[in-house]
Design a protein that fits this description.
Elements lengths: L1 H8 L4 E3 L12 E3 L5 E2 L7 H6 L15
Antiparallel strand pairs: 1-2, 2-3
Length: 66
């Protein structure tokens, strides 16, 4: 949960990849300094998905776990 909190509170520190992923194995978010990776999934806490900005170029601006 601490990593998700870091993503929500410091999104500028993460690469936001969901809109241009080339593979399902690629992470949705990757920390720019540590390289730590996160994937959205049905198990992602709802407070995280609700706090994230819309996917760039995503349909209707919604973030939906795959």
């Amino acid at each position: 949960a601490e990593v998700w909190q870091n993503l929500v509170h410091s999104p500028q520190s993460w690469w936001d990849n969901p809109a241009d992923k080339r593979s399902l194995k690629a992470p949705d978010f990757k920390h720019k300094d540590t390289g730590e990776a996160l994937w959205l999934s049905p198990r992602t806490p709802s407070w995280v998905t609700n706090a994230l900005p819309p996917v760039k170029g995503g349909s209707k601006g919604a973030r939906r776990p795959e």
